[in-house]
């Protein structure tokens, strides 16, 4: 049983101040992980490490566009120089897009697919071989209820297609590497209180979003990162190829 004492997680999309990636990076640092934070935007490290002992020593950041193979390679080399071997990759970075199908240009379609799906593919493919070599690893990728539901809140065809693609890729990868000690899973949140849906969900927009959620409130980033922490942890070695709903009852079954 190879789960190491020194753990490194790569978290993409960790720069967003109110986002899931930032909250996850903080949670993992608090739990003693080393974290490699990747984002298109510069990551404010002082903000992530604040009040966490030694966290500054365990956090490394890289600016990268995950949709570009050369960026992914450069970030990976940076982390391999600065952090212990990578145990987990959490693919959080993504973009939303509410453009209706009939108005979706080819450029727009390709950008959403390129970031959400190809970016997840590139990050995952870069790190899985090392995990296989060490006999242990964890991949968790962010899907969305939109993969199944047809979207409707702040997403449409391109976003739904990219997220359904992530689930399909995760299942195929999970089976392909199942015997190596590396697991691959997806999680599918409904509406989490972040800024991805065209900025903060203010009082005016709140009723529209909560009306779609049986529990009657938005999800919180810490509820998502708690699930991810479990899935990349030592007790989740028998979970692979799964997609976990975390959606306040928005979609059941
Ligand atoms: P967010 O917008 O707060 O954060 C996304 C981060 O990804 C940003 O920091 C952004 O800079 C980064 N990013 C975007 N494109 C990138 C690229 N090409 N390369 C590197 N980084 C890039 O979003 P969030 O709400 O925290 O969402 C995180 C993930 O969860 C996304 O994949 C999203 O689709 C998914 N998700 C979110 C919700 C929700 O309600 N918030 C629901 C379902 C799924």
Automatic annotation (TrEMBL):
| Top-rank taxon, per record | Bacteria
- Cite the entry's keywords alphabetically: Oxidoreductase
GO molecular-function terms, A-Z: oxidoreductase activity
Tell me the Gene Ontology biological-process terms attached to this UniProt entry: monocarboxylic acid metabolic process
Please list the residue ranges annotated as the Ketoreductase domain: 7-180
Signal sequence bounds = none
Q: Which family does it belong to?
A: Belongs to the short-chain dehydrogenases/reductases (SDR) family.
According to UniProt, the name of this protein is SDR family oxidoreductase
